[in-house]
């Protein structure tokens, strides 16, 4: 059951200026609360970070926006519409895929064109296979999007929703995403394409629930979008809207404790020992970090123990490449698939051995064709990412070990060249962001991008709740319900605003 707070609420402190925290702040300020956002870093954005170097601008987080109507709803509900604030550009090619056999697929940005493109690239009948799968995925979306993605949910809600036998059969909580794919897709390249969508939640497709089929359905139904100037502009636009409404954002303000009085959150304490009183605290931070580091109640410790038992999501190692005379033209997004995807997931999640860097990983490349992010013609600001196990010096991979991150980056560039995308002689500057760096930048344990993995139905649908066990404390962002990725993070902000409600 959802919980709301007293209608006398007026002061709200949001801990963290990631997209979820900023979107929640904007919605709550528009409802009439007095909202202050406190961010430990010197810049806003959280995992939607931006790095600038000699005229190059890099998004260090998401490279695409899907389900743009979710972002539009934040602005429409709080003032001027999105189109007056940000330009969105729909990509004609959602992604170029290179499969291990050398086949190249340019997946169109318009869903109607996808079957023909699959037939042309992979062979006749592949489009029909994908259409059959996507039809099942649509039915999963229809069943799950409102109760599971747009509303607060707990175990009782799942039991209640499971009483409709037809819905249970559609969602098939006993089946994995890989298992669902095998029912519809006979081409191994289509299965590999589907497996990739499990990584959107930091998960293993062999254990992630079939319900995640809703992810490719939503992406392909609403298309893939880019924000000229970089996706970091989304965070800037949210800050601007918040300030226009009378809210405040303070950077360089590290929260070290959520204070509790009479069993209820009543403010926060900062690293400089100052205190901010609040009627409601919204934590846009990793759920595990909130319960283990910021809140000291017994209920928080119990919840922290539960979160700690869950499998951490995968992390990533990123290369920010400032290129001269960049090879082109290139699609905005490319995926160079691993020869052995299962070996990749085994390494990342510590199966058949301890967690370890992937020897030959899938490589994700974002190469925006955008003059606003480069210093001049022919230059390229490329973001390259490979899946990686979280930073865990005690029981896994120590990404701070001398040379490990840089050696891995060298290997990734060599692998790109081997797979037909050689930029080694074009690199003017390179920055490497390891899982250890992600942990430090975002205060996320291990640098796990999505908090916990959706490995199993309970993990997927019972992420840490937005209403915490501590009255007056709410969680927003990718590690809490409904999950990671820009659209779900924005939905979590709407859920939190609904739980808090307007002041009296």
Automatic annotation (TrEMBL):
- Where does the Amine oxidase domain lie? 20-291
Against NCBIfam families, the record matches this protein to: crtI_fam
Superkingdom of origin organism: Bacteria
Organism encoding this protein: Nocardioides imazamoxiresistens
The similarity annotation says: Belongs to the carotenoid/retinoid oxidoreductase family.
State the EC number(s).
1.-.-.-
- Which keywords accompany this UniProt record? Carotenoid biosynthesis, Oxidoreductase
Quote the pathway field: Carotenoid biosynthesis
Record-annotated membrane-spanning stretches:
none
Check the record and name the SUPFAM superfamilies matching this protein: FAD/NAD(P)-binding domain
> Under the GO molecular function aspect, what terms does this record hold?
oxidoreductase activity
The yes or no answer to whether the keyword Oxidoreductase is present is yes
InterPro entries, A to Z: Amino_oxidase, Carotenoid/retinoid_OxRdtase, FAD/NAD-bd_sf
Record's protein name: Phytoene desaturase family protein
